[in-house]
Write a structure and sequence with these properties.
globular, alpha+beta, single chain, six-stranded antiparallel β-sheet, five-stranded antiparallel β-sheet
Amino acid sequence: MTSSPLYTDTLPGASHWSMKVKKGYALKLADVEGGANLGVMFYNPENLLERYNAPDTLKCQHTFRLTKGHCLYSDMGRIFCSITEDSFGWHDTVCGNSNKKMVAEKWGEKNYQEARNQRHQNGYDAFLVEIAKYGLGKKDMAANLNLFSKVAVDDTGTLMFDAGAAKAGAEIVLRFEMDTLVVMHTCPHPLNPAKTYPFKPVSYSLFQDAPVADDDFCKNLCPENGRGFENNRIYHGLQA
């Protein structure tokens, strides 16, 4: 990455945002206070029907959780981005979103008209509001990532949220392998057991990155990733 960011900002808790990140750029995300959850979805801005595919991402890399070295795949077998750095070490991609009923039952209902920026927003509605900017709706929702949230499985197969994994200053860097529409929110994870609604901010910075080398760690993590990078090369016109 370049030594200084081209753009940086902070997304407050219970908020949503989106941006188009071009191929060859990197997005550094950081849990400012500890305990944040960043819900993320990816779309191809040139063809919004192409979006992040959680099952393919996990099965082709033989993993349940995401960390450094893993690539995030589209439903066309291409790679949106690669995780080049990660100090958190375990990001959830199976538990989905919180919704209005879930949030109200856990923390009570607070809408924008009454509480303004202290409203109890949920992930599902936050995503809907954000993707509407691009003409998308409920039918276009896909499985999302939950960055900075660790969810493990016990011996009975029960999913368990690990609140102790939260670390202030934890960072993850996503290097984009194709132009990507990134949609995100800072609403709580659906399994978060916090007694009060967690308003946790996430900072983000955009950098220009170096070209992918032949010995790139993400590209060579497994044979499937090599094929994913080849799919991207074909998509971009067989450029070297």
